[in-house]
Amino acid sequence: MAISVLAKSSAAISMPVYRRIEEDLRDRIKGGAWTAGTRIPGRRELAKHYHVEVSTVQRAIANLLDDGVLRAEAGRGTFVSIDAIIQEPAQMPSLRLGVALRDAEAMTNADSYIAHIVQGIRLALAPYGLLHSVAFVEEKDVDQVVDMPRAEIAGMLFASPDIDRRTHIDHLSRSGVPVVVVGSSWVGIEAPHIDCDNYAGTNAALALLTAQGHTEIACAVVNANACHHYDRGQAFRAGMARRGLDVRPEWIIERWKPAREQAVEDLRALLGGVPRPTALVAVDPSVALVALNMANQLGIRVPEDLSIVTFDDTIRVENSQPPLTTVAAPFEEMGRAGMELLIDLCSGKPFDRSPNLLPMRVIERESIGPCAKAAPFA
Known about the structure:
Blueprint: H1 10-13, H2 17-30, H3 43-50, H4 54-66, E1 70-73, E2 77-80, E3 97-101, H5 113-125, E4 134-138, H6 142-147, E5 155-159, H7 166-174, E6 179-182, E7 193-196, H8 198-211, E8 217-223, H9 227-242, E9 252-255, H10 260-272, E10 279-282, H11 285-297, E11 307-311, H12 315-319, E12 325-328, H13 331-346, E13 356-358, E14 361-363
Parallel strand pairs: 3-4, 3-5, 5-6, 6-7, 7-13, 8-9, 8-10, 10-11, 11-12
Antiparallel strand pairs: 1-2, 12-14
Helix pairs in contact: 2-4, 3-4, 5-13, 8-9, 10-11
């Protein structure tokens, strides 16, 4: 990305170099060259452009971080803050909107997909001046919030709701409350959806593994009550069947409620058993990391003895040893599109009820390799 050169006016030249860099970066943001959520170039790249030491750039960026113009995410980079964008709010009626989360605490965890959905939601709200007009609530509290006379909730966005919330969400939508669902693609309910294409993503994961000669592939679903887990598990079965590959029941780890302790035992039995799969599709990154650790404990080499593919590109997935191949969902884009759709609904604009499925992206790393039979079949 091109960066403007430092100003050469006498006033600018009288400033310390780090201050001139700071002001140049501010001008780019104010001028719209870098929008909210944009990751700025790295310190070394900026230092090379400005012909200064990295420490000089670091000092300029530190000031912008302190002022809230930029925000830093560990392991991901430095981004333009939403609050830094100076613009007139778009013309629209004043709204108070609700966002329902399965786990409200997850929105503060930079490595959580919920946090990225929430970031996308905030990016959609910023142009309308609605950043402080949204209420984040737990799913279980939605009815209470919607029914409160003072709340005056104009519409509700559900972020990655559990399957058992389907009937409740459909009832709320049919009652006249504008509702959008992000992170599921249910068919037959009133509310529109924004989701990632889990079926195509899972098929891409299987294509990677079968291209390496793997035919004996296991799948760890763990929490089938979560929509994206369930969809990926179903897509795994369908993809294996379409390729004429058998799915051993004992090679499918699937539970309907999160149970980490039991999942660990299931993975231990799977990886320590005979025969053992040569590849594993883990539909959640935390499960993939447990499997990687378990493989290390059992002396199973990844990827020489076991290939692992997971979903959702988190910091821990990228920094694992070896780094895990993953199918990344566009969570921030999903959150942004979902909130933009909710704003349209609240403004009376027409909408399409068919699910809007956004493409997933394969990031191939070092956790997959050619098939080598882990153990002979009896």
